[in-house]
Specification:
The structure holds two protein chains of two kinds.
Chain A lengths: L1 H26 E8 L6 H20 L7 E8 L4 H13 L4 E3 L4 H14 L2 E4 L15 E3 L4 H16 L4 E5 L3 H16 L6 E4 L8 H9 L4 E5 L2 H13 L5 E4 L6 H7 L7 E5 L9 H9 L9 H18 L4 H10 L2 E3 L2 E3 L12 E6 L5 E3 L2
Helix pairs in contact in A: 2-11, 3-4, 5-6, 8-9, 11-12
Chain B lengths: L2 H34 L6 H21 L5 H28 L8 H22 L4 E2 L7 E4 L7 E4 H23 L1 H11 L1 H6 L4 H27 L1 E2 L3 H16 L4 H21 L5 H15 L14
Helix pairs in contact in B: 1-5, 1-8, 1-9, 1-10, 2-3, 2-4, 2-8, 2-9, 3-8, 5-6, 5-8, 6-8, 9-10, 10-11
The chains are: A alpha/beta, B mainly alpha.
């Protein structure tokens, strides 16, 4: 008898809870997080997740948006353009109308077509390829500066601060890396500095000994690398082993504690253009503390750009009382936003009007300090 | 020596280093093909597993406070060979033996399935990020005129040459002198007849997979230590290159695999030396196509006799 009662009680509780969750679900507003949750660059996906989840938590604690609670849903594209299209279609099918992502420019680009067509608001916190916003889309924005700005910043630093004797420009033959490398080479050439070498490596390659021997032969003392950390890490490591000690510089794709893990001591002193360290900004002190309290890392370059992406979305939603992508996009284009990355203002294309990058020097413990 | 010849020497060293590891992996392809006439597409993953095991063992031993490098390396080698061989044997048992005697395409597809399975198994159990190990064997010799060009030959490269040479010699002796080796050669000549003569061909085929996997594990250890980085996707590219080396040298021929590996490695290094390095795969695969056009059975392969 007693047993039967217990079961009955349990069942009724379960039914009540089911009812509750169903009710709660109806109230949430889903925000899609598109980016790599697996694959070789999954740590960038983690940074985005940390930022978005922190923003959602803060907004929900303050009562949500228009009476609705936010919910982050993760979609994994593994930074693969093919999977990005599949993910974008799934987001459309799931009825999600706001997306933070994607991360790698090469997967953001094919996905934007789908979002623009289906009326989904997308804000990328990490993709810096200029071509993403050049197609006249209305619902595509970013909270990060452009590749071309990173390129000009790097070129300016090379010309005025580093002043190398012979420079080589290396890239990984991908949209992001080669795009940046080309712009650095062209900007240097425009100032009369001709790159001694300009060539590509194959992503996923592990052996760079032939390339390093060639750099050594060309007496290069400065290498600009357009690409991501796995290849640069190995190039640095193998350079150190082969006694090639040029100054290396990369874009924000190499700014990652894994660079130091791969390259070890050889990662000390590498230069990189990276988004400003928003976690050092006093405005974000409470947010940084909250992220740290959860045992997560607030220092990644995309954490606060992702946080800001959610803020831009939700500020627009509060102001317009709408979730319609067209209405939100119009509002975003016409207004300024006060976010975790400072004042944000958009131009007609959906790009930030101000650069968010700075030149940093990386250290072997994975930290970075502003370069002199 | 002039600057040019020093530079050429450096690139030759680089090419031979990478080439000898291609050769080690290529042996696994060529032995399996020589005996059962099939390509083991899961072989690259066996190499990758060998690398992972090396990393885990080295990290574990260092964590236990063992600092002696020779002990660490020998333990890592033995464990890597043992575990990789077990995987090699299992691949044969699961993906090949039940399908023996069927259409040739079927085991090919099951091997590709095995390769995808193993890769994803490692992704799930070890994560998909690069795992790095601090350099274990550092230093080397520098020679040549520093004002012209300084050639560096690291101890690690010397170790790669030495270990590859020893493994190849042992393998050659094993194949040419031992009873098991003789049985292997008999199987590769005529599997059906060998079976009729009372040799357990199942055992010999399993042995072939085990020996191939052991050599792949040695390559996994050497390249793992050389690059200091491993991720679950290294097996695919390494497998592709080694397979190319095996075909180049003449698939089915063991000296062919050794030669093919070295040629492929040196071609890659020389291409990268004198052309932009993005062309290195174009040139090495172009070379493969050219050689196959003029010598369809590869450099040292015997002209194909149709097996009935």
């Amino acid at each position: 008898m007693n047993q039967f009662r217990k079961t009955l009680l349990g069942l009724s509780t379960a039914v009540c809870m089911l009812g509750l969750t169903a009710a709660a679900q109806a109230e949430t507003l889903k925000i899609g997080l598109a980016g790599p949750a697996t694959g070789p660059v999954a740590q960038y996906g983690d940074m985005q997740k940390i930022g978005v989840m922190a923003a959602i938590y803060d907004i929900n604690k303050a009562g949500g948006i228009n009476g609705m609670m936010l919910e982050g849903v993760i979609y994994d594209d593994a930074c693969d353009p093919k999977q990005a299209v599949a993910v974008a279609n799934k987001i459309v099918n799931d009825g999600v109308t706001q997306v933070v992502g994607h991360l790698c420019s090469s997967s953001t680009e094919p996905a934007t077509d789908i979002y623009d067509e289906e009326g989904i608001l997308m804000i990328t916190a990490a993709s810096t390829s200029p071509s993403i916003t050049e197609k006249g889309y209305t619902t595509i924005f970013r909270t990060i500066g452009l590749d071309s700005l990173q390129g000009s910043m790097a070129a300016e630093y090379i010309l005025t601060n580093a002043k190398p004797k012979r420079i080589a420009v290396i890239h990984d033959k991908q949209q992001y890396g080669e795009g940046l490398a080309t712009s650095v080479r062209d900007l240097l050439a425009a100032q009369g500095v001709k790159a001694a070498m300009f060539e590509g490596v194959t992503p996923g390659d592990k052996d760079f000994s032939a390339l390093i021997a060639k750099l050594k032969k060309e007496n290069v003392d400065f290498v600009y690398y357009g690409g991501y950390h796995p290849e640069l890490g190995l190039i640095l490591r193998q350079s150190a082993e082969k006694g090639f000690d040029a100054q290396f510089m990369g874009p924000e794709g190499v700014v990652n504690s894994d660079l130091a893990k791969i390259a070890g001591a050889a990662a000390e002193g590498v230069l990189a253009t990276a988004p400003k360290s928003f976690d050092q900004n006093p405005v974000n002190e409470a947010r940084v503390a909250a992220i740290k309290a959860k045992g997560e890392d607030p220092t990644g370059p995309f954490v606060f750009t992702a946080y800001a992406a959610v803020e831009v979305m939700t500020d627009a939603m509060t102001a317009t009382q709408s979730t319609d992508a067209e209405t939100l996009s119009d509002y975003i284009r016409e207004h300024d936003f006060d976010t975790a990355i400072g004042k944000v203002k958009y131009d007609e294309k959906g790009d930030l009007t101000e650069s968010t990058f700075l030149v940093y020097r990386l250290h072997q413990d994975g930290s970075k300090t502003p370069a002199e | 020596m002039s600057e040019f010849s020093l530079y050429l020497l450096q690139q030759l060293i680089n090419g031979l280093t990478i080439g000898s590891t291609y050769a080690l992996i290529a042996i696994g392809y060529t032995m399996v093909y020589g005996i059962i006439g099939m390509i083991n597409f899961a072989h690259g993953e066996i190499y990758m597993i060998g690398s992972y095991v090396t990393f885990i063992v080295i990290a574990g031993l260092m964590g236990m406070g063992i600092a002696s490098l020779p002990i660490i390396l020998i333990v890592a080698l033995v464990v890597a060979i043992f575990i990789s061989s077990t995987y090699g044997w299992t691949v044969e048992r699961v993906a090949y033996r039940p399908l023996r005697g069927t259409n040739r395409l079927i085991p090919l597809i099951s091997a590709i399935g095995m390769s995808i399975f193993l890769q994803n198994f490692v992704v799930l159990s070890q994560g998909s990020r690069d795992v790095a190990l601090p350099p274990q064997i550092t230093g080397g010799w520098n020679f040549g005129d520093p004002s012209l060009y300084e050639v560096s030959l690291s101890y690690m490269q010397v170790m790669i040459f030495a270990v590859t040479f020893i493994s190849m010699t042992l393998l050659t002796l094993f194949i040419s002198r031992s009873r098991m080796g003789r049985a292997c050669r008999a199987c590769s000549e005529d599997l059906g007849m060998t079976n009729l003569l009372g040799i357990d061909t199942n055992k010999i085929i399993a042995l072939t997979f085990i020996v191939g996997a052991a050599l792949a594990a040695i390559a996994g250890l050497l390249l793992g230590l050389y690059y200091g980085v491993v991720n679950p996707f290294v097996g695919f590219i390494a497998g592709l290159k080694a397979f190319t080396a095996a075909v180049l040298g003449g698939i089915g021929s063991i000296p062919g695999a050794m030669l093919g590996g070295l040629i492929l490695g040196v071609t890659e290094a020389m291409t990268a030396a004198f052309f932009p390095s993005e062309y290195k795969d174009v040139v090495s695969f172009g070379l493969l196509v050219t050689i196959l056009l003029f010598r369809p059975s590869g450099l040292l392969g015997k002209p194909e006799v149709e097996k009935v």
